[in-house]
Amino acid sequence: MADDDDESSTILDLTSCQLRDLSSIELPPTLTELDLTCNRLKTLDPRIGDLVNLKKLSFRQNLLDDSGIEALTQWTRISDLQELVLRDNQLKKLPDVSILKSLLVFDISFNEISSLSGLSKFTTTLKELYVSKNEVPKMEEIEHFHDLQLLELGSNRLRVMENLQNLTQLQELWLGRNRIKAINLCGLKCIKKLSLQSNRLTSMSGLKECVALEELYLSHNGISQMEGLSTLLNLRVLDVSSNKLTSISDIENLTLLEDLWLNDNQISSLEGIAGAVAGSREKLTTLYLEHNPCANSQDYITTVRKIFPNIQQIDSSMFA
């Protein structure tokens, strides 16, 4: 019982309580985590600014606008906060959270942010930054994030990959649903997960030196040729579905490949597929080839199963 009491005094989860304010809520001074997800808050309770032990604070899915969170910029007593979530509110600009000197995770996705201006004031300690589903047109003011490991800028208005060169610890880069025409990782070689789904790519060029890549998502682009993949020996997941590919190439020596998504392309024949994926024949467990001309042949599933002895899924068909 003592353990339960201790946790209740350090963690307060008020998710989906439909609160318009916190006047009826006691906020113990010992709180380390406060979750206010899915409420009706338009302003911040000033008592939160006195929770000196607070490490995690979430206002996800509320009704906060720029003026509603202005008090946060003055809360020096919670300067040790490590995680701040403002996801899914009504913000139009980045708040000034320069007082948060220990911030590790910042999430402001699903707002109406039109610029990354102000990021230069953020602490260099940041490890994860989420700004997806906003109106951001340019990657800027990120050069000082030397410790950043994850950057999520999907569903914005980006046209160019830029200013990444100092992010030497970056392992995950999520840029799906933008307007990017060319891959430019600015010399970074340590990225493990890269998503450029639903952009305007016509080429895979620019990946050759990303030898640490484990997951690569390039679906829904205009790519016509598989290239620059032969050096990506750590690749486990490759998604190039919904492109303009007519053949499978440049992956024959990828021995760790487990998931290969090639559906919704223009691959006409299964002939040569065994050689094209020679390195991963034993390892591959999931393969999508549906909505290609080659998947229309009568013995399609049987042929593919013979090529890949350990296959567990072909399109929607599962095998024990």
From TrEMBL:
<dbReference type="InterPro" id="IPR050576">
    <property type="entry name" value="Cilia_flagella_integrity"/>
</dbReference>
<keyword id="KW-0677">Repeat</keyword>
<dbReference type="Pfam" id="PF13516">
    <property type="entry name" value="LRR_6"/>
</dbReference>
<dbReference type="InterPro" id="IPR001611">
    <property type="entry name" value="Leu-rich_rpt"/>
</dbReference>
<dbReference type="GO" id="GO:0006952">
    <property type="term" value="P:defense response"/>
</dbReference>
<keyword id="KW-0539">Nucleus</keyword>
<dbReference type="InterPro" id="IPR032675">
    <property type="entry name" value="LRR_dom_sf"/>
</dbReference>
<protein>
    <recommendedName>
        <fullName>Protein phosphatase 1 regulatory subunit 7</fullName>
    </recommendedName>
</protein>
<dbReference type="InterPro" id="IPR003591">
    <property type="entry name" value="Leu-rich_rpt_typical-subtyp"/>
</dbReference>
<keyword id="KW-0433">Leucine-rich repeat</keyword>
<dbReference type="GO" id="GO:0005634">
    <property type="term" value="C:nucleus"/>
</dbReference>
<comment type="similarity">
    <text>Belongs to the SDS22 family.</text>
</comment>
<dbReference type="InterPro" id="IPR025875">
    <property type="entry name" value="Leu-rich_rpt_4"/>
</dbReference>
<dbReference type="Pfam" id="PF12799">
    <property type="entry name" value="LRR_4"/>
</dbReference>
<dbReference type="GO" id="GO:0051707">
    <property type="term" value="P:response to other organism"/>
</dbReference>
